Amino acid sequence: MSAIARLKRAVVAVIPDPIAERVLPWRRTAFRAAGVSRPADAPVRLLIGPVNSAGQGFAWARAAERIPGVSAMNFMYRGAQDVFAYPADHSVSTAYFVENRRWQRAQRRAVEQRFTHVLVESGRALLGGGATAEVDVAHLTRQGVQVGLLWHGSDIRLPSVHREMEADSPFLEGTYPEQARLEAIAAANGRLMRTSGLPSLVSTPDLLSFAPDAQWLPVVVDARAWADAAPVRALQRSRPVVIHAPSRAGLKGTPLIAEVMRRLDDEKIIEYREVHGVSAAQMPEVYGAADIVLDQFSLGIYGVAACEAMASGRVVVSHVSPEVRERVHAITGRTLPVIEATSADLESVLRGIVADREDALAVADDGPAFVAEVHSGARSAEVLAAFLGVATATSSDHMGDWNDAR
């Protein structure tokens, strides 16, 4: 940073925000550009924020808009160099969210006055500044806003419990670099969930083990977009291309499978490609170039990445626990089209797929239909309708299925 830039920043720092944004042109421009969350006019108005993990806040807002009489939008804060750059209805920089008091006051007024319902993601503060989620939730509740809690994964999954559930849990030896931090976050969020008494939703069915009174809000994937990017059926090459694109290698179990994948690649059984740092917009092309997609081998779950690969018609191989598979079947009536493999038997599973492809192709061919039925947004809209108090008979039926499945 240049001396002039440092001086400029120091001067601005001592000027109160309301004054700075009146007298400094660049601050006026920034304030106007940041804006506040503004829903379309409707009897029921939903805000989802502030995380937008894997673009799901934006996708769920679109699902909610399928409901008559409902408008919805998502809000998030993020760094300027966000490589994934998922779409959002309203976003501001993290620095603006944390530091700009005038914007925080304007956003607070907008949320409490313009929205009837709010879903707070991951136990994060929604209104900016130094407040906590507990403070924001209490404030919005006092203002008559109906508030719910929405969990994505590590925000509510206790490592100390997970390591008792999964043989290859990344938390088994207590050496995962962020384990203590994740334990503290999940424990705090669990307390918020229990003490607030607010309704909770979870994005993946495994999280019902950590939030037993929650409901599953399925992630949403545009199945057509992923299918269009993969026009060639999987497993047509003599040497199949296997892709693994771990967003967080330690949680996905990437080190557990590295040696096996190198060996199979060296033997030319498969062609292995490990993908990192690719934007969300490029992922349909990445999966479309694959025959087999490896998802994860540590957590026992399936989420957005597996759904995207299924929508692409790829052979998806991953470890999904029996409990999760049973929940999915009980709730949806469908079998999850993901071929089961742990790190211990991945080699034999892949060799078997390459040697005899028809069974794997049948599973892959069911992927797009499964995503279209479970993860197109229709089922998510029904769950959101119940939270919004506009539940239909169809959504009530699905809620009953969920309650039975628990």
Q: Unreliable stretches, pLDDT < 50, 5 or more residues?
A: 10-14, 393-406
* Helix content range: 40-55%
Instruction: Work out the strand percent.
Output: 5-15%
Structural class: alpha/beta
- Can you count the beta strands? 12
What strand order characterises the main sheet?
Answer: 3-2-1-4-5-6-7
Characterise this structure:
The chain is globular. The protein has helices at residues 3-13, 17-23, 25-34, 56-64, 94-99, 101-114, 133-142, 159-165, 179-196, 223-228, 249-252, 254-266, 283-288, 304-311, 322-332, 346-355, 358-374, 378-388, 393-405; strands spanning 44-49, 70-78, 90-93, 117-121, 146-151, 200-202, 215-216, 241-244, 271-274, 292-294, 315-318, 339-340. The protein starts with a helix and ends with a helix. A seven-stranded parallel sheet has the order 3-2-1-4-5-6-7, sandwiched between helices. A five-stranded parallel sheet has the order 9-8-10-11-12, sandwiched between helices. The protein is α/β, with parallel strands linked by helices and 406 residues long. The protein contains 19 helices and twelve strands. Helix 15 packs antiparallel against helix 19 (393-405) and helix 18 (378-388) crosses helix 19 (393-405). Helix 14 links the parallel strand 10 (292-294) and strand 11.
Provide a compact summary of the structure.
By secondary structure, the chain is of the alpha/beta class. The chain has helices at 3-13, 17-23, 25-34, 56-64, 94-99, 101-114, 133-142, 159-165, 179-196, 223-228, 249-252, 254-266, 283-288, 304-311, 322-332, 346-355, 358-374, 378-388, 393-405; strands at residues 44-49, 70-78, 90-93, 117-121, 146-151, 200-202, 215-216, 241-244, 271-274, 292-294, 315-318, 339-340.
